[in-house]
Amino acid sequence: MIPRRRNSKKGRVEIIPMIDVMLFLLVFFIMITLQMITDKGLKLQLPTSSTAKELPHPHFVINIEKTGKVVVKGKEMTLDQLQSFLSTDGDVEHTQVTIAADKVVPFQQFVHVMDTCQKAGVTQIGIATKAT
């Protein structure tokens, strides 16, 4: 009688689960990257300044349009809504805000927005200008 050899199964590398994991990682990194894209704001004609310098990217860019509308992250807000939005940000003392006002916006409107930020507790306020 001839001894029979056992059929040994070879180990296989399953590629489909690996593809699933790689696609999951790709989607994960794309979603994280999209959240890291900065808020570009609106197209405004900013006032010019000869001493303008680059500031680190703020948490929020508050845009004041020619019509006086206040826009944050693509949403139009009243000053009361802006104050409650900023005050619920968590650590308000470390919240950085940049105000970008069109150059034809009355200065009083700019001051109202700045006052609203200070009422919310924001102390780090920048002003957006265009370098000459």
From TrEMBL:
GO cellular component terms given for this protein: plasma membrane
GO molecular function, one term: transmembrane transporter activity
Keyword match Cell division: no
Pfam family, one: ExbD
InterPro entries: ExbD (IPR003400)
Annotated TM spans: 21-38
Bilayer disposition of the protein: Single-pass membrane protein; Single-pass type II membrane protein
The entry's keywords: Cell membrane, Membrane, Protein transport, Transmembrane, Transmembrane helix, Transport
Keyword Repeat part of the UniProt annotation: no
Subcellular location: Cell membrane
A GO BP entry: protein transport
Top-level taxon: Bacteria
Signal sequence residues: none
Family: Belongs to the ExbD/TolR family.
Protein name as it appears in the record: Biopolymer transporter ExbD
Provenance organism: Acidithiobacillus marinus
Organism placement in taxonomy: Bacteria, Pseudomonadati, Pseudomonadota, Acidithiobacillia, Acidithiobacillales
